[in-house]
Amino acid sequence: MRVVIVDVCGGNLRSVEKAVATAGGQAVVVTRDPDAVRKADKVIVPGQGAFGAFTRGLAERSLEAPLREVITRGTPYLGICLGLQVLFDESEEQGPQRGLGLVPGRVVRFRPAAHALKVPHMGWNQVRRVAADPLGDAVPDGAHVYFVHSYHVVPADRRVAVMDSEHGGAFCAAIRKDNVFAVQFHPEKSQQVGLGLLEAFVREKAS
């Protein structure tokens, strides 16, 4: 089972690699090679930073087409942070900026009414399950996970939402669409809860 972690623009790749290996991944590869992505049994796309820089990284490394290919053929995909956001039609960060358009909806900035609520939303927060899911169910309802983000996804169809969280109002924290599962929080920073999610992903069978 070849688990490929896609290097779009650096960031927390080694932390993700170590966490996936701890979770039981036997052949974990960090790569920016499009052909290696195409040959993956499972794909993880982590991302930190700005949406525009991330999409430029996809283009510069010729990674957009192979990601579309593996998702279309049913390869299990786990998106983390920007790996979630890039699936959507567009982001208002530095933009609007075009995303992959694989999940209808937008990425918008937090605009909390309460001045005590800071942006970025950073640190531990609870998630609430809003739909049953083989991977989402690995995260206990009400569990605390680690977030670092200023923008959040707004799906056009709420039926893709698997988990919500709260920061000046509810926001979508995880989605499922066919073989795609993606989260706004960082499993690699979420201790045992995050490892449980990664273990479930490593075990998940392709559709």
Can you walk me through this structure?
The protein has 207 residues and is an alpha/beta fold. The protein has 6 helices and 14 strands. The protein has helices at 13-22, 34-38, 51-60, 64-72, 82-85, 191-203; strands spanning 2-6, 27-31, 42-45, 77-80, 88-91, 97-98, 103-109, 121-126, 128-129, 144-149, 151-155, 161-166, 170-177, 180-183. The strands form 3 sheets. An 8-stranded mixed β-sheet has the order 2-1-3-4-14-13-12-9. A 4-stranded mixed β-sheet has the order 6-5-7-11, covered by helices on one side. Strands 8-10 form a two-stranded antiparallel sheet. The protein is globular and about 45 Å long.
Question: Which structural traits does this protein have?
Answer:
single chain; eight-stranded mixed β-sheet; four-stranded mixed β-sheet; 6 helices; 14 strands; 33% strand; globular
Range of strand content:
25-35%
- The string of secondary-structure elements, in order, is EHEHEHHEHEEEEEEEEEEH
Structural class: alpha/beta
Strand order of the largest sheet: 2-1-3-4-14-13-12-9
Please state the average pLDDT score: 93
The termini sit apart by: 15 Å
Overall morphology: globular
Q: What does the radius of gyration come to?
A: 16 Å
Poorly predicted ranges: none
How much helix is in the residues? Answer: 10-25%
Helix tally equals: 6
The largest β sheet comes out as: 8 strands, mixed
Total number of strands? 14
